[in-house]
Amino acid sequence: MNIPVVLNGNKVMLLDDADTPLLSVLRKNKLYSTKHGCEKGMCGSCTVLLDGKPVPSCKVPVSLAVNRNIQTLESFRKTEEYQDIMKGFSKAGIKLCGFCDTGKIFAARSILLSPEKPNRNTIHEEVSHLSPCCTDEDTLINGILYAVEYHMKRVED
Ligand code: FES
After folding, report:
1. Is 39 touching ligand 1 by the criterion CB < 6 Å?
2. Given its phi and psi angles, is residue 74 left (phi above 0), alpha (psi -120 to 50 degrees) or beta?
3. Three-state DSSP class for 58?
């Protein structure tokens, strides 16, 4: 099946079976930020943005991506929001391990862009399903709270 998509800002044609998980198709196309983790839609290691919303790409058949915008971490790294998140993570002592990064980073992005002011409880609700392999939840929450501070300061300046 031919699958026209906008992938990281470029119109491309993906070629695969309709029910192949988007995760597998992205990795075949050398977008290795998406990882094979639980493959049950829980751990967050395969997260991508589909029309701006975070989704577990392991649970999305590629046929559902027809004519939609897919953004992977490779592209999100070029944004100012990513820099805010990295500053916050760095202040909290969070290092990126390369495996569970998409879950942590795209969860942080959702919180940054939410109109609600986050607190530890609301962030817990957003991240408790993740299985970060290198960061405990308290530290992740600290990093996200710092990231929110950096983000608010930047957009208010
Ligand atoms: Fe997709 Fe875990 S591999 S959510």
Report:
1. yes
2. alpha
3. helix
